[in-house]
Amino acid sequence: MVQWHWSSTPDASWHTDRGLAYGDGVFETIAVMPHGPVLQERHRDRLVAGCRFLGIPFTAGDWIAWWSELTDRGWLHAESQSGHVIKLIVSRGSGGRGYVAPDVARPRAVCIRSAMPEIPRGSVRLSGAQIPVSPCPSGLGLKTLNRLDQVLAATQTAKGCFDTLMSDHHGRPVEGSRSNLFILRDRVLQTPPLRSLAVAGVMRGALLEWAPRLGLRVIERPVTWDALSRSDAVFLTNSLVGAVQVEQVGCLTLPNHNALAEIRSFISQELGV
Amino acid sequence: MVQWHWSSTPDASWHTDRGLAYGDGVFETIAVMPHGPVLQERHRDRLVAGCRFLGIPFTAGDWIAWWSELTDRGWLHAESQSGHVIKLIVSRGSGGRGYVAPDVARPRAVCIRSAMPEIPRGSVRLSGAQIPVSPCPSGLGLKTLNRLDQVLAATQTAKGCFDTLMSDHHGRPVEGSRSNLFILRDRVLQTPPLRSLAVAGVMRGALLEWAPRLGLRVIERPVTWDALSRSDAVFLTNSLVGAVQVEQVGCLTLPNHNALAEIRSFISQELGV
User: Fold this and answer.
1) Of the ranges B39-48, B142-151, B257-266, which one carries the lowest mean pLDDT score?
2) CB spacing of A98 vs B117 below 8 angstroms
3) How far is B9 from chain A (nearest CA, A)?
4) pLDDT digits (tens, 9 = 90+) for B214-263
5) What's the CATH code of the domain at A169?
6) A80 and A181 share a domain?
7) Of B134, B145, B178, the CB nearest to A134
């Protein structure tokens, strides 16, 4: 039985929540645009997979119940052109002895509605992070509540930069603190493999699936700095911004062939954004 | 200005706390024995170092204010021989845009009192974990709220085992999910180095400092399975149990020379436990 919390629901036991204590849970952040919520099935699948991996009893059925409640509360209706964001945190709830989880968990589901962040119009600049990516222990890039690496990387985002590019232990670029990395060259899309990621974004997954319809071949393989420089375009994806072209990382200026227009247009049509 | 929460203090904005959202904070768990609280200065120093590393404005002065309040509430007085445990969680509080921290944070300090867990009387058995240790990004073994690796390792603790031994990426044993690892041989104490640890326990730090008074030499160097087998004793430390000898890890039976008696006796005298 899930405990639901909508914004400021009082809750006498929030202070012992295992999400707060250990980051023992997962979350999703979903864009709600005038056309409707974006990529909800992919968000659902990642959240439910995360709960399954952690052994938290929150199922696709619980998601459906949530979705129905979201509809009733009007949270799936965008009141402005820029839309808004809904967030669902599912923690294992309170209980257990130290790190050991309780035999029967009562998950806590926290629902938050907030304004849409500013979406970049053109290409963006990135900072380079000193914080390496720690791949998700599942190897599946699940969006757990353990996001301190991303918080530390975000701290290193210089003024005017969109995000910070994080690297693996070999110094190869892997992902942004809040975005996945792609390079495009000669109609081949390359992106680092799933097992190397902290978070496998839902937009990343969608784009990999759409690629054949765009006449693009896909390679999931580690990306080098050299490959970045020799690409037709470097871009980042996430479910709020879609795909954003990168013009500069730190001091490195990247190619600017406007090769991304077709992909952006496709995403826009596909998602009605 | 810190927001203090004692057990079930109502708090309308707990659901947007960055500790819950991202594990953006640190914590300490302190034993309170009939003789008094155990190793409080070391707990304070680690928590304050963690806040400094994360840029959370919680100082030694805030700790002292907390300690004074703990005294007033009687939380530092053990009502039974087994004592109790007090826990302090300090998160960055609410606010900021996504992972980016707010310019001025208002930390949330959550205070919890709970029963002392069962302390093993004799030697213990351990499970071996599939989950590798991710060293703390600071290289200092700070006790952040990102503890999902430890939760997953604890899940793998077999019935009747005290803890699960986690390994580094070379497969060498590093630490328990809730304890640090030591081996003793020919009056030399060996323990994995600070930079390799997820958490540098306060009891580990104390024991390293006390070693010369026990006539022991200290080596901070990676520990091998072979070294475990050839030791006089293998033991785990944490601030609740002190030092506990390990008799078995998975199928590996360890030496049992009772070489730990002197160390246990010293800890007991030093801490009055």
Assistant:
1) B257-266
2) yes
3) 7
4) 999 999 999 999 999 999 999 999 999 999 999 999 999 998 877 789 99
5) 3.20.10.10
6) no
7) B134
> In a mutagenesis test of the A interface, which of B84, B97, B99, B145 is the best target, namely the one with the most A β-carbons within 10 Å?
B99
Listed residue (A230, A237, A222) closest to A254, CA to CA: A230
Query: Within 10 A of A157 (CB to CB), how many other CB atoms are there?
Result: 21
Show the domain range for A154.
Answer: 124-271
Residue pair A242/A264 in contact by the 8 Å Cβ criterion: yes
Residues A166 and A111 in one domain: no
At B106 the pLDDT is 92
- The per-residue pLDDT for range A112-128, each reduced to its tens digit, is 999 999 889 899 999 98
What was the ipTM of the complex prediction? 0.94
Same-domain check for residues A38 and A76: yes
CATH number at residue A34: 3.30.470.10
Report the distance separating Cα B267 and Cα B207, nearest Å. 8
What is the domain count for chain A? 2
Same domain, B171 and B92: no
Cβ atoms of A184 and A191 within 8 Å: the answer is no
- pLDDT over 70 percentage in chain A: 97
Q: Do A100 and B157 touch (CB under 8 A)?
A: yes
Q: Cβ B5–A23 below 8 Å, yes or no?
A: no
For residues A126 and A130, give the distance between their C-alpha atoms in angstroms, rounded to a whole number: 13
Boundary-marking domain end, from A81, A97, A115: A115
A86 CA: distance to closest CA in chain B (Å) = 12
Which residue among B5, B16, B23 sits closest to A112, beta carbon to beta carbon? B16
Alpha-carbon distance of B156 to A269, in angstroms, equals: 46
Amino acid sitting at position B112: I
End residue of a domain, out of B115, B141, B159:
B115
Tokens in use for B240? 């609740």
Residue of B nearest to A159 (CA): B100
